[in-house]
Amino acid sequence: MVNSKYFPTLVSGFAAGVLSTVPILKSTACCILVPAAVIFALYADRRINNDKFSLQMSYALVFGLLTGVFTAFFGTTFDVLISFITRHNEFVDSYPQILQMLNEMPFLQGSDPSVKEAMDILEATRDDIVNTGFSGFYAVMSFINNLIFYPLFGLLGGLLGKAILDRSNKSF
After folding, report:
1. Which among 35, 39, 41 has a CA at the least distance from the CA of 152?
2. Angle at CA of residue 64, ends 48 and 157, nearest 5°
3. Which residues have a Cβ under 8 Å from the Cβ of 55 and sit 6 or more positions away?
4. CB of 68 within 8 A of CB of 150?
5. What is this structure's pTM?
6. Average pLDDT for residues 150-168, to the nearest whole number?
7. Distance (Å, whole) CA 39 – CA 162
């Protein structure tokens, strides 16, 4: 058995990362999966250590932050891997709607070189995914996006986990 203080965050972050690649669950990854993974990590840590005391706020927040970081890492890795294998992902599916939306924005009309460059980057990203299955730009942007949102919702999960576990501890 691994004797790491934060092993439950790694396990639950891995599980949430895997579940965040499932198409229907992907839309709920930040607001449901990550907080639930943190609550599970806190619960597992309490069971492993046979701890009956109230959780410290900093401990719950660190668990939330680490679970969010692990979820971002594993979720992005699996998303990029699945995109590489299938040469398809949500960005490729939504690309026509993205172009339509951008063309309808009045402040993006005209021949601004930065708009043209941004459109070229989007098209190159889509083409890379369709042709080779991998886009470095997509991978980096996906990781940055996940690294921002998942730890934030992990902190929320840490607060919820502390409240839930402290309440259930008082009922015994």
Report:
1. 35
2. 100
3. 42, 46, 161, 162, 165, 166
4. yes
5. 0.90
6. 95
7. 8
